[in-house]
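$ ./design --mode recover --in tokens.txt
reading tokens...
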């Protein structure tokens, strides 16, 4: 190993990372209840119909009280809860809300690893917001998702992905849980091994037969014994039992949007002042768009405004054109949301990743 590398590893081990795991609460069901309030306060699931042997994708907490769960056959769910209302998924709507949630994440960090439409890891180690407090960033993200999108998310804050994911589940729904570096030891000791990433029912049963139920039990075993018993997963178990997880937050290298923005030295006092900045931004955006490889197709336009009081809004419109006039209209609508002086204007367009689409098509062929 080179000296520089060794130095990097040493520093890497010493630098405390700050990872946030965000998980929307019963995402699909939450969107359905938001968009049709008649669906709220009653057992609701999103999924396939029972007569077509469908399964439940998501259900709300009223339905969970009856034992209804994700991936359960809809017919069985209806036996547990005869009043259950099952609505068909509206994937396009869920994807659009997911993009809106991710747009909020991007205001805090670029280091984002989406796990699904409703779940992501954020690495905020290097972000300047809130004086670097991951807890306050997580609180602010929760506040903003609720305020802008009327759905709730739970958040976990910890020094690594493994613990952050457990933490987001700890106070669910609509909760926040933080595991500080000096709390890891005690927190993990009490953790049932079934909570460990990669430990399914089979492994949990195998561990139980060895008398291992908590991570404290697991720590009694040395690394070699675990390797012998569980193969390469044994080393992972040894690490997890000590709260260690070095996996980085992996950013998808494919872009989801292209955009430009500018923060102005002096606040733009009104809409005409904002509109006057648009041609310059539009030209810069066109230059960036021209540089994209042909694996992308431009999709809908969006406008982002940050007001003088640091509140901000992002407005995008499906089906709108990508010409200057479309951005003018969008900017007018975004400005009306705050109707106060503006410090930052951004414009951009969402991208369709054609390579991703081809991959998906292959999956379903
Ligand atoms: Mg979720």
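writing sequence...
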């Amino acid at each position: 190993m080179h000296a520089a590398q060794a130095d990097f590893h040493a520093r890497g081990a010493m630098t405390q990372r700050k990872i946030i795991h965000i998980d929307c609460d019963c995402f699909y069901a939450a969107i359905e209840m938001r968009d049709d309030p008649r669906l709220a306060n009653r057992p609701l699931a999103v999924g396939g119909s029972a007569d077509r042997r469908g399964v439940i994708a998501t259900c709300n907490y009223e339905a969970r009280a009856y034992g209804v769960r994700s991936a359960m056959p809809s017919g069985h769910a209806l036996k547990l809860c005869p009043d259950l209302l099952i609505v068909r998924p509206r994937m396009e709507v869920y994807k659009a809300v997911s993009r809106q949630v991710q747009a909020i994440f991007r205001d805090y960090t670029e280091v984002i690893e989406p796990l699904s439409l409703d779940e992501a890891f954020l690495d905020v180690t290097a972000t300047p917001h809130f004086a670097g407090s991951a807890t306050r960033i997580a609180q602010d993200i929760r506040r903003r998702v609720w305020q802008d999108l009327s759905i709730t998310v739970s958040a976990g804050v910890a020094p690594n992905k493994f613990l952050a994911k457990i933490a987001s589940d700890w106070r669910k729904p609509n909760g926040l849980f933080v595991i500080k570096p000096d709390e890891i030891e005690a927190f993990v000791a009490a953790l049932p091994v079934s909570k460990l990433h990669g430990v399914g029912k089979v492994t949990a049963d195998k561990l139980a037969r060895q008398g291992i139920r908590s991570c404290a039990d697991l720590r009694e075993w040395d690394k070699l014994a675990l390797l012998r018993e569980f193969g390469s997963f044994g080393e992972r178990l040894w690490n997890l039992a000590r709260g260690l997880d070095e996996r980085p937050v992996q950013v998808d290298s494919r872009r989801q949007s292209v955009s430009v923005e500018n923060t102005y030295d002096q606040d733009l006092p009104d809409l005409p002042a904002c509109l006057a900045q648009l041609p310059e931004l539009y030209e810069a955006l066109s230059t960036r768009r021209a540089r994209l490889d042909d694996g992308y197709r431009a999709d809908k336009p969006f406008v982002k405004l940050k007001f003088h009081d640091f509140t901000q809004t992002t407005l995008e419109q499906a089906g709108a054109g990508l010409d200057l006039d479309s951005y003018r209209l969008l900017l007018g609508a975004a400005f009306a949301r705050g109707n106060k002086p503006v410090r930052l204007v951004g414009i951009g367009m969402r991208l369709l990743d054609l390579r991703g689409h081809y991959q998906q098509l292959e999956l379903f062929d």
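exit 0
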